[in-house]
Amino acid sequence: MTDKTDMERQATAAPAIELKGISKAFGPVQANKDISIRVMPGTIHGIIGENGAGKSTLMSILYGFYKADKGEIFVGGKKTDIPDSQAAIAAGIGMVFQHFKLVENFTVLENIILGAEDGRLLKPSLAKARKSLLTLADDYGLKVDPDALIQDIGVGMQQRVEILKALYRQADILILDEPTGVLTPAEADQLFRILGRLKSEGKTIILITHKLREIMETTDTVSVMRRGEMTATVKTSETSPAALAELMVGRKVLLRVDKTPAQPGDVILDIEGLRVVDEKGVERLRGIDLQVRAGEILGVAGVAGNGQSELLEVLGGYRTGTGSVRVKGQALDLTGKHSDGQSRRQHGIAHVPEDRQREGLIMDYQAWENTAFGYHNDPAYRSGILMNNAAIKADTVEKMERFDVRPPNPKLEAKNFSGGNQQKIVLAREIERNPDLLLIGQPTRGVDIGAIEFIHQQIVALRDQGKAILLVSVELEEILALSDRVAVMFDGQVMGVRDASATDEKELGLMMAGITHAGEGT
Amino acid sequence: MDTMPKWAEVVLVPLISLLLAAILSALVILGIGEDPVAAVKLMVTGALGSTYGWGYTLYYATNFMFTGLCVAIAFHARLFNIGGEGQAMLGGLGVALACLYIPWPHWSLALIGATAMAALFGAVWAAIPAFLQAKRGSHIVITTIMFNFIAAAVLNYILVNMMRPQGSMDPATARFPDATKLPTLHDLLAPIGINFSKAAPANISLLVAMAACIFLWVLIWRTRLGYEIRAYGHSESAAKYAGISPVKITMIAMIISGALAGMMAINNVMGEAERLVLNATEGAGFIGIAVALMGRSHPLGVFLAAILFGFLYQGGAELALWTSIPRELIVVIQALVILFTGALDNMVRMPLEKIFLSVRAARAPKPKRKPVEPAE
Fold first, then answer.
1. In whole angstroms, what is the distance from residue A501 CA to residue A490 CA?
2. For A385-416, what is each residue's pLDDT tens digit?
3. How far is the C-alpha of B50 from the C-alpha of B45, rounded, in Å?
4. How far apart are the CA of A117 and the nearest CA of chain B, in angstroms?
5. pLDDT above 70 (res B346)
């Protein structure tokens, strides 16, 4: 299709979705302010904005989860009222959530008909669904095994099931909320191929994300949101990542990390032959050898699930292993009484865990309580068996200021901060301990651009103070930007270690897939 | 952001729940042809209208404070201890042993000794399910329920075959010696000129229970142990990350929980019956669950809820005595209160939250602080 006919079609056709003057407030917080947007049929329309910009609220209004305070919704040129998700489905709108809504111990087929069964008996519905599933799979290249249990298939596949669920309900408009948050780069690429296919078959797609790369690669049009307002809608081909970032944050953003060459000192962390067998008896780490020196950042790259998490957990003291791990020459206890988080902290190891909501923070604790988390036995934080709450609070106020946590309210519960600010609370707690070794996993997962810049600066600053840093991230870009050396993990082993300046995404990508250079062993 | 001010959360929600339960109870009473207003009057005068009534209300409340605290502390570690009943029974055994076999010179020493034994027996009885959960993964709800039955059977055996005095037909221990007799509220209040009923069973254990409330508040909100227990209760994975041992927290929380349930025995066994009888606990262990739920696992809440349930118990007994409202209906009324305050909490909470939100929105057109993070 040429550009001209494309434009002609857009000029004549009504927008697939049009929102006019949508406003929504939660108490004093204006989540959406007078938002208007036109999404043309057969296009991929990106909505980008930082965490908390109001993207998800807007989509929830479109899908009938919230009712807008003001404004109108038009679907296919017709004014439509969407009081609940049933109405959204009836209007041809399908939604793929960031956190999948699937029944783990049901099969793919059972999940697809869930809520869309035809009669009281399941058999005919299942048979019908199986048939249309085959057609859908053919039409859009969405191959899944209809009889596999959800719990047995990968995250990428589960997402496919979510898309199929929407298509089975005859959705013409698909909304995807942060679809790549849980995917590996390869799975993400597959997803985008599927989206391209759906588009060419005439479906309309709204892609919500805060990742610039995805917007640039996949969308036709992009709308930028900031603080509840729609700041711009532009053609993707006519903009650049830097311009979008500026629109999102409201100021110029440094997209790469400024750092001087590392000046490595003594070996701080020395891992030899580290092995981990998990609860199911599967060997997760199969003899890891790694060294991290003072004043350097060692990045551990790899597709999620290749042992990086287990490595952090063993080092952090909440998973047992065998082999030898020395910190500043002292052997760590890997199995016994002293293999716990408290002992690790006494060894001068600080740990920013991969999942701040499950591990790094108690979401129901207030910020000040979280600031003491893991360090609650510190003499400065206690008086006898009691906690010294006043001292902790005072310390929290200082840390919040230094790390620019917003809002700077030590009595706010962790769950009420945005992702970036939650991460800053964890970082402040761990970095301000002035550790000899910092373990840091997925430092910027689910964190907005403005905060990413800040977090990266803090990590580099700690390195420049001569500390050793072990960084695990599934974002290759981040690994390359921050690390001085890069280790690639595959299937519980280290495939190789490279100087960050002497390697590139292509080489690392091959190693992540388990392929080392020819001539360097098998 | 918090949607409701704290006072509404802790005062208004339970009050409205209570009101709803009362209305429904009134309808039930109307339905069987009795006068609800007269019934309420009778309950209030029966439970609160005399020092005799108060004496019984506070006696029951003392039991419920101990068992309510027992459930509350376990809740903070996200453990559901349904075994308060069995732990209290074993506590009774501890009290009986302490009182019968040790020649106490004075009641105060006897109280300390009996309290320690009661706590020890209750703690051991809770520690077994705790150990099974921590080390073997047996679900604590199941094991503590089973331990209630085991406790009843053990007690039955011991009373019938071992501790029953020669020649007695009654499955109960001998009467405790006079030196272990605890001062009642009558004895305690007489020196300051208050003439409290002599016949009512409320005794010095009430003060022990109140002290336990204060102790538990300090433990939960001020100590490092309490911090670790709450952290574990909120998130086990985060607790592991921080180096808080799940085994340690499970054991300690359950041991404290069982000890509190066991301590109830100084009230009902030592203070009231002055001997150990079968079924001395009379279901107080289960009422403790409702008390902890209604009191939101906060010691002050537990204190107030225990007094409310003490009132319902005593008032209910009066109703059964003086009206044709059958005993079973009293249980229905108590169950309604439990249902509304414990189980249907959100039914009241959510509309109330909405009201507060709209009131706040109307009152504050211009928020002083800039809204930094709109909800996603």
1. 21
2. 899 999 999 999 999 999 999 889 999 999 98
3. 7
4. 30
5. yes
User: 3-state SS string over A366-407?
Assistant: EHHHHHCCCCCCCHHHEECCEECHHHHHHHHHHHHHHCCCCC
- Look up residue A319 and give its amino acid: R
Write down the residue that tokens 């979008």 correspond to: A244
- CB of B222 within 8 Å of a chain A CB? The answer is yes
Q: Give me the interface pTM, i.e. the ipTM.
A: 0.84
B245 vs A340: CB contact, 8 Å cut-off? yes
Q: Which two tokens stand for residue A88?
A: 């959204």
**Residue type at position A453:** E
Tokens encoding B153: 């059977």
Best of B366, B369, B372 to disrupt the A interface by mutation (most A CBs within 10 Å)?
B372
CB environment B74-98: b (16+ within 10 A), e (fewer) = bbbbbbbbbbbbbbbbbbbbbbbbb
Put simply, the answer to whether B376 touches A51 (Cβ < 8 Å) is: yes
What crossing angle do the helices spanning B13-31 and B36-48 adopt, rounded to 10°?
120
In A, which residues are within 8 Å of B237 by CB distance? 355, 358-359
Residue A30 token pair:
């204006």
Q: What residue type is assigned to position A482 of the chain?
A: L
Is pTM beyond 0.95 here? no
Per-residue pLDDT at B373: 44
Q: What CATH number belongs to A15-92+172-249? A: 3.40.50.300
| Partner residue opposite B222 with nearest CB, options A51, A386, A406 | A386
How close A69 comes to chain B (CA, Å)?
12
Question: Are the C-beta atoms of residues B320 and B43 closer than 8 Å to each other?
Answer: no
**Which DSSP category does A500 fall into?**
G
Where in chain A are the domains? Answer: 15-92+172-249, 267-362+433-512
CB B66 within 8 A of CB B261: yes
| Residue A193 CB neighbour total at 10 angstroms | 12
Q: What is the dihedral of CA A37, A41, A44, A47, to 10 degrees?
A: 10
Those residues with Cβ within 8 angstroms of residue A464's Cβ, 6 or more apart along the chain or in another chain: A259, A260, A295
Residue A293's DSSP bridge partners are: A267
Place of tokens 């399908």: A94
DSSP run (H or E) holding B321: helix B299-322
Average pLDDT over residues A205-214: 87
Q: Where are the alpha helices (DSSP H) in A201-326?
A: 212-218, 241-249, 308-316
CATH of A267-362+433-512, one of 1.20.120.160, 3.40.50.300, 3.40.50.150, 1.10.3720.10: 3.40.50.300
CA–CA separation, A488 vs A300, rounded Å? 6
Please spell the DSSP secondary structure of A299-356, one letter per residue.
EEE--TTSSHHHHHHHHHTSS--EEEEEETTEEPPSSSTT-SHHHHHHTTEEEE-S-I
pLDDT band at A522 (very low <50, low <70, confident <90, very high): very low
